[in-house]
Amino acid sequence: MGKRKLNENDVPEEADAVAVEQNSQSFDNLGLDARLLQGIVRQKFSQPTPVQAKAIPLALEGKDILARSKTGSGKTAAYVLPILQSILKRKSDPRFSRCTSALILVPTRELAGQVSKTIEAFATFCGQDVRTANITLKEDDQVQRARLANSPDIVVATPARALHNLNSSALSLDQLAHLVIDEADLVLSYGYEEDLQNISKSIPKTAQAFLMSATLSSDVDDLKGLFCRDPVLLELDEEEEDTDKLKQYIVKCAEDEKFLLIYAVFKLRLVKGKSIIFVADIDRCYRLKLFLEQFGIKSCVLNSELPVNSRIHVVEEFNRNVYDIIIATDEHEVLGSEHKKKKKSKSGEDDVEEEADQEDKQEAEAEDDAPEDSEIKDKDASAEPPRKKRKARKRDKEYGIARGIDFQNVSLVLNFDLPTTSKSYTHRIGRTARAGKTGMAISFVIPKDQYRKHKPTSVESCKRDEEVLAKIEKSQEKRGSKVEPYNFDMKQLDGFRYRLADALRAVTRIAVREARARELRQELLKSEKLKRHFEENPQDLQHLRHDSEARTARMQPHLRHVPEYLLPAGGKKDAAQEIGFVGFKKDEAKENRIRKARAMKKKMGKGRPVKKADPLKTFNAKGRGKK
């Protein structure tokens, strides 16, 4: 008979039951190596999340795992820890002392960098027993081949990069023990299905498979059949769902009023904390950045055009509270929908309405983006279809911001431009209200009768805002959430409308184009030319900023200050409070006062002594004014 122990209510219970309860609340009882436990402590992980508590013991038993759990629930550690445990055990066998034991496939370069850093953090105390290679970096093939020739224990890659190195024989998977496909549904939506089918031919049948995803669709079922053998299904969304943490609002407004509202949100301090703003396309990123600059509001942009090193650094600095506002595009929602349409047409499960939405969106981006994109290279490029295609290829298809990337402590997700699908909306708002914290999502919606009423600020993707909103409300209702109207009193902002008009007039199409080109040049310089310098001087990287002003639009200093008479009742006190983490410039008025005081002292002979000229050297015998 087992020992009995008193519980919190002084009732005896079996010791085994107590142990089970402790197992679910501590990493110490999961059977992990002491070196890994040290790494866990260093990362300040106190207790395993539900997905970690369930997945790690099953993984250590060698089970294939198919897990659905929302972003931010700890899925990365759920597969990284058991893989590291397995590698440390394998090292005792000489046959596996130098071979690639794990391949981790991810949809984007940003996520690859994040996963690599997570592995290195947990393996900090493992010395040279665990070596990781991230092969998504832009580097010469010979350099990458040399790195893979050392047979790193863990390789992190996108499916395209993994297949490329397999085909060139640079990567060998003969001794592979673990395969991970992280964000599995997103990997498929990015068009990697054919790459995965080709990779599957090189995977040993004995390899353990982990499929981690935020949603389980028919696409993920196809992957299950391709890589898994009788996997254990873990669905944890229901256990972790807490609809009270996230408040969702919509604001129906005119096209130019979007800019008025975002001015009010940030200049009048209506939202406290860090924010991610989603817009429709890359030009929209810079238009909004230049608009906010008119009012002294700093922001940084994140899109597929920027170098991958810059994008990763922006995310890291945002998480370190260096930046307060990120303006991001979510371009791959179109690519994802194209893949969905193809899959549905094969299975005969067509959703005609959604396909029509996506086709319109695709055409809209082709019409809206391509001419302005190509203007950076050539004024007449918009008339040449081949030039458009070349420009599109220059964007990084392995970029994705709505999913997979771990943004920390986000208070607000602002859908400046509504996404085109309810699924994309769900992924976007998943950036906030994570890890038990509260968050807010606000979406601007253009009614049909307001569409194209203000052409300078109009985008084609807003054409179907009301139809998409109906789908979003239906989707969120199924999840037990509610999208409520945000009853903003627009009359209180009437006094700011003339400022809005001034700012929008300054942000011309040419200014947007020049800002985009300038930002790209700057980021390429930071990313490539200074890469070696930052490797040798990592402290300099800490001071590298991405939210510097573009300054291509006509600057109007008077817009930066909000007169007291324009503030709503009680607004002066709120607007005076600094929030967030963006460091604004020094007070210009104070600077001017100091400058004037110095000039006055100089005039009166005070302050620093003025060096007098030598009269003998300046003597002019011909008299003053004569030569």
Automatic annotation (TrEMBL):
EC annotation from Swiss-Prot or TrEMBL: 3.6.4.13
GO MF annotation list: helicase activity
Database matches in Pfam families: DEAD, Helicase_C
Compositional bias (Basic and acidic residues): 374-386
Biased composition (Basic residues): 598-610
Region (Disordered): 337-396, 598-627
UniProt motif (Q motif) ranges: 25-53
Residues annotated as domain Helicase C-terminal: 245-494
Domain DEAD-box RNA helicase Q: start-end pairs: 25-53
Domain Helicase ATP-binding per the UniProt entry, residue ranges: 56-234
Subcellular location: Nucleus
Signal peptide annotation: none
Reaction(s) this enzyme catalyzes, per UniProt: ATP + H2O = ADP + phosphate + H(+)
Keywords, comma-separated and alphabetical: ATP-binding, Helicase, Hydrolase, Nucleotide-binding, Nucleus, Ribosome biogenesis, RNA-binding
Domain of life: Eukaryota
Function (record text): ATP-binding RNA helicase involved in the biogenesis of 60S ribosomal subunits and is required for the normal formation of 25S and 5.8S rRNAs.
Family: Belongs to the DEAD box helicase family. DDX56/DBP9 subfamily.
Name of this protein: RNA helicase
